[in-house]
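Dear colleague,

As promised, here are the two records you asked about, laid out in our usual form so they can be pasted straight into your sheet.

NAME FIELD: protein one
SEQUENCE, THEN STRUCTURE:
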Amino acid sequence: MGLIVAHIRAMYLQQQKLDLEYKIQLITQTRMGLSKSVDDLLQVGNDFDPESPTTKMLQQRQAKLKVLEQKLDQQMNQYKVRLDMIETELQSARQMRDKSIQEAFSYK
């Protein structure tokens, strides 16, 4: 019975791991897009007078994008911590499964 439980647990953890890796990938892609947007705003902002309303509006948008980028960084760090925890638990489940197999097929 322990073998089945360990195998099901390992499969469940593997699925969670894949889900977190996918979320990290999405955040990475989103951050790259945000970085490009911030760079574009910087380039456009250089064409205007520093005191113009357009420049101030662009600076506000740039600040909002940077805040969003920081939030994405925090979310990605949380996902990475959870991923490390799942990886550790997955190794434990695999060891438990291997131990169950070894006990089931050992001759006494």
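NAME FIELD: protein two
SEQUENCE, THEN STRUCTURE:
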Amino acid sequence: MSLTKIEIITRSSKLDELKDALNSIGVLGMTVSQVFGCGLQKGHQEVYRGRTYDINLVPKIKVETIVCEIPVEKVLETAQKVLRTGQFGDGKIFVIPLSDAVRIRTGQRGEDAIKDIPGEKPQR
């Protein structure tokens, strides 16, 4: 099997719904970042103390996950179903093949580095 990184950039308001949908198809591990960007939306204008300012970067979230057993197409279909509103700003999904991954704690590589270890619970 191959490792694939999926990056989803979308509206912050969709995070909980996206996370629940991805969890329901077996995608459990993900990294979420607050990001700023611009695309077709080109930002907006705000007025502060009587002056108009162009806000060129729009706040978004970026959800990153690595899959090997779950089909990439299933992840893409699930994300699109949750995120598509038909309006500008729905976001983008990037699919990136990975050559390797390493679990730092154990030295496991490849698929073993991203899979859960049965019976092992993280310390809190």
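A couple of things worth noting about protein two: The radius of gyration is 18 Å. The longest helix spans residues 72-83.

Best,
R.
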